[in-house]
Amino acid sequence: TLSVFAGRNPETLTTGYDPVKNRRSKRDGPDILDITDLDEVQESVKEIIEWKDLGLKLGLFYSTLEEIESDHHRNKNRKREMLAAWLKGEDNSKDRTWSTLV
Q1: Is 24 exposed, middle or buried (0-12, 13-18, 19+ CB in 10 A)?
Q2: Phi, psi of 84, deg, nearest 5
Q3: Terminal CA-CA length for the chain
Q4: Read out DSSP for the chain?
């Protein structure tokens, strides 16, 4: 099971308010994530090693993932580019919300 909340501040998860960033998080509602959320999304899935499997589950095409793999030599960069493609709504990207990642 994928969980993006491991190691997160429980206050943020229940109230949607992140005291560190002093702002409401999109995690508190059905807001659609976009490319401006890349840093937070990338941080939340940093423990996931199989970036291609995650990309497929998020609705990206295998050919897109293959292209990302050939264009980027480090897994960290590949995962970031895969998440960026998802956040931009490429291919058959599923709902771009926190609940999709859980």
Answers
A1: middle
A2: -65, -45
A3: 7
A4: ---S-TT--HHHHHH-EETTTTEE-GGGS-PPP-GGGHHHHHHHTTT---HHHHHHHTT--HHHHHHHHHH--SHHHHHHHHHHHHHTT-TT----SHHHH-
Smallest CA-to-CA distance from 97 within 51, 30, 18 is with 30
Predicted TM-score (pTM) above 0.90 = no
Digit-coded pLDDT (tens) for 46-70: 998 899 999 999 999 999 999 999 9
Which tokens hold the place of 65? 């993932």
The distance from CA 25 to its chain's CA centroid, rounded to whole angstroms, is 14
